[in-house]
Amino acid sequence: MKSLFQATDLYQYAVLCDFDGTISEKDVTDTLLEHFGNDTCIQLEKQWQEGMIGSRECMRQQIANMDASLSELDNVLTTIRIDPAFSKFIHLARNMHLNVHIVSDGLDYAIRSILNRYGYDFLPVYANRLLHNQQRGWQLEFPYANEHCLKASGNCKCQHRQKLFGFQKVFYVGDGTSDFCVADKVDLVFAKDKLIDFCQQRGIQYYPIQDFGDVAAILPNLIEEPVENYCLSPA
Ligand SMILES: [Mg+2]
Ligand SMILES: [Zn+2]
């Protein structure tokens, strides 16, 4: 059976993509908490921002404080749009046989439902597991947590990176703090927002992007170029 984690003759390159703020225009968890969260959720967010708790503990408690029926939650999900240029990137990925994985510290059910709406149900998603108790209660589980991850995220992306085997190059597309632990473990980062500053500070090879249109435009030129030749302090 073909493993998604292993390179094949045809699939020599992998692209890991963050979801919230990278593929989706808005952060899904934040959007759901705006609709269904309570004051405790806001307190938890502050504690996370101040570094008192990791994102895993923060989200675990926030999701447990959410009050929504399944259909209410589904309704809000239908309002979340994705980057209009994502289709260009997926087209390229098909033509160039890129092995695309979505690695997210967000909610698997939400991500799948949004991707399904756009016809991208074939993309593998690795995220935290959102569970519904059949009434108005919700719970988050962390099948990809890693005690050794510096970020104490729900889904440790650096661990996911380590599972990839035999690829000539691994690229990463992301925008925020959940991408920090993996950014220095790939060949090249396509970065938005906070991730740009992080890469700059750490001397990590990155390319700043506005959206997936930039990834689709740049990636074909970089793919066969030796990593040493990357000259990435773009003006
Ligand atoms: Mg993000
Ligand atoms: Zn990690």
TrEMBL record:
> Per the record's keyword annotation, is Cell cycle included, yes or no?
no
**GO BP annotation list:** L-serine biosynthetic process
Q: Would I find Nuclease among this entry's keywords? A: no
Q: Which GO terms describe its molecular function?
A: L-phosphoserine phosphatase activity; magnesium ion binding
State the UniProt keywords alphabetically: Hydrolase, Magnesium, Metal-binding
Name the domain of life this protein comes from: Bacteria
Q: Which cofactor does it need?
A: Mg(2+)
Q: Which GO terms describe its cellular component?
A: cytoplasm
Q: What is the protein named? A: Phosphatase
Provide the organism lineage as a comma list: Bacteria, Pseudomonadati, Pseudomonadota, Betaproteobacteria, Neisseriales
